[in-house]
Amino acid sequence: MRWVTVAVLAALVFSGSGGFAAESVTQKYALTLEGAKRVAAAAETEAFKNKWNVVIAIVDDGGNLLYLQRLDGTQASSSETATRKARTAALFKRPTKVLEDAVAAGRVSLLSLPNMTPIEGGLPLVYKGEIIGAIGVSGATPQQDAQVAKVGADTLLPLPQ
């Protein structure tokens, strides 16, 4: 009897009257590993050009690490810092510089929020108007980190068909 009840409930849930309507789901873009590598390669080129030893971290829209690149000579702590900058930019959907400025202006309560690293150098990655991830860079000055991140983020354009 129990299996019959479960089968009837399952049929009701997935039928037209109780199932998912088209308005209940959406399609979205997702950053691929190939896309993350393209962003990191552009950022790496900018870092090499300026002789800055940095770590480049790329996360998806949920802040999960997709790709990490630590250039030779970069201090080990920058791996975690770059990842945290990227995670902050993805989860808060804004550059980490905006959050750094807010803290500097007195909004120190932001520091109590989870996944908050308000240090310049993290930028959302935007594709066709959607945030699909973020890049975080650490190892140089915050302004230099941001410059490297921007070059990487700016390469994320639609590929030619």
TrEMBL record:
One protein family per Pfam: HbpS-like
Protein name as annotated: Heme-binding protein
Keywords attached to this entry: Signal
Signal peptide stretch: 1-21
Organism name: Methylocystis borbori
UniProt xrefs under SUPFAM superfamilies: GlcG-like
Classification of source organism: Bacteria, Pseudomonadati, Pseudomonadota, Alphaproteobacteria, Hyphomicrobiales
